[in-house]
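Hi everyone, sorry if this is the wrong subforum. Our group has a chain we'd like a structural model of before ordering constructs, and none of us has done structure prediction before. Sequence below.
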Amino acid sequence: MNPADELRTAADKIRTLATAASTDPHGRPTTHWSVRYRPGVHPDAPAERDQPCALIATDGPTEVRLLLGGAIGNRGGSRAAIYPDHGRYAAAMDPAVGLALADWLDQAARHYDAGVQAADDVFRDPAGREAFLTTGPGAPSEQALAVARAINGTAP
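Answer:
Right subforum, don't worry. Here is the predicted structure as tokens:
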């Protein structure tokens, strides 16, 4: 398998998993995940790593709880569970994936910085400089920007 095949295989896999995890078994949308903090904890408070929280989908008019069984965490007596499609997707998106995405975004930023420097050196005309930065070598790809914006919570 050559590198291009590896990239396509990974893209197909994550796309399939993400598509499957975009609805629950009842067809309700579950594309955007969030956590529900225990009662009394404000959502903007610092993360509490020693306290359980609920994994929920926030797409629809009502929230869909993704962890099933028990109360928040394991306090309800039965073990918490997650829908199989959501579990497989979550498992595929482990910290190694996040680190690889971070490296990719850093590389895109370095390429863009080099493009900015080149534009500053070559273009004195602001319109030519702007065109170069959006389409020339080093311009960030739409996909890299989409990933960064999703991570940053600024995606439309």
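For your construct planning: The CA atoms of residues 24 and 105 lie 31 Å apart. The longest strand covers residues 33-36.
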